[in-house]
Specification:
binds uridine-5'-diphosphate, three-stranded antiparallel β-sheet, 7 helices, Carbamate kinase, nine-stranded mixed β-sheet
């Protein structure tokens, strides 16, 4: 198995499916099914879900609201999504715990690092709600921070695009996908992976990121099985997909070159 402990970041927006707002039941069930499949293989799974399908702090000003208030509303939106995912997983008999960055005693546990790690060791899917619990951050930053805290092997950023491209593939047909790339190259080429806070946290803590298409059924399991889906971001832009600790002597096999593939 390529990774023992993963942090999966799902965007709130993706949860909308074809809708304009809220949660699409079919998409929710698909995500739960994907997570169940990898958890059943013994992978320890932590999840962060965004809240963009319900509310984002940046929208607050358009509503005539205070930005900080808007950010707290966004954090609560992530708790709603997290509760929905928790229920979907439990319906499928997957044990879960929801840990929140904001204390909401009646519905979830407060985030306590040691508890999160214990839940993961026991095979429970741990969902981190309410981001990091502070305004002016995003759930991408929460994903990076929690992944570092619980010592995840990788952040898997599930999106609707199948990796990092040289340009926006939805606008530029000549855009090419990078199978692997280094943190430094992402910065040099000004590519959009995560917001800068989230990205810097990963870079400074040598935490690999994989950007992949989460909407294609089975992709999460394929990634875990070692398939070269999406784009892997690492310190040296190579190094294959084995966990740093899983290769004797710490040597990393190079599975791929660093040349972009045709889209
Ligand atoms: N948010 C925040 N602090 C955090 C995480 C989230 O203030 O640690 C707020 C912020 O307003 C953000 C919203 O919650 O816009 C929803 O999260 P995000 O935009 O990251 O969701 P996504 O884009 O993944 O759907």
């Amino acid at each position: 198995m390529t990774y023992q402990r993963i942090l999966l970041k799902l965007s709130g927006e993706a949860l909308m499916g074809q809708q304009q707002y809220g949660i699409d039941a079919a998409r929710l069930m698909q995500y739960a099914t994907e997570i169940k499949a990898v958890a059943a293989q013994g992978v320890q799974v932590a999840v962060v879900i965004g809240g963009g399908n319900i509310f984002r702090g940046v929208q607050a000003e358009a509503f005539g609201l205070d930005r900080v208030q808007g950010d707290y509303m966004g954090m609560l939106a992530t708790v709603i999504n997290s509760m929905a995912l928790q229920s979907a997983l439990e319906k499928m008999d997957v044990p879960t715990r929801l840990l929140s960055g904001l204390t909401i005693q009646r519905v979830c546990e407060p985030y306590i690092r040691r508890r999160a790690m214990r839940h993961l060791e026991k095979g429970r899917v741990v969902i981190f709600g309410a981001g990091i619990g502070s305004p002016y951050f995003t759930t991408d930053s929460a994903a990076s921070l929690r992944a570092i805290e619980v010592e995840a092997d990788v952040v898997l950023k599930g999106t609707r695009v199948d990796g990092i491209y040289s340009a926006d593939p939805e606008k530029d047909p000549s855009a090419v996908r990078y199978p692997q790339i280094s943190f430094e190259e992402v910065l040099e080429k000004n590519l959009n992976v995560m917001d800068m806070t989230a990205f810097t946290l990963c870079k400074e803590n040598n935490l690999p990121i994989i950007v992949f298409d989460m909407n294609t059924p089975g992709n999460l399991a394929r990634l875990i099985a070692g398939e070269n889906l999406g784009t892997l971001v690492t310190m040296d832009g190579g190094g294959g997909r084995a966990r740093p600790g899983s290769v004797p002597g710490g040597a990393l096999p190079t599975l791929l070159g660093n040349e972009p593939e045709q889209a």
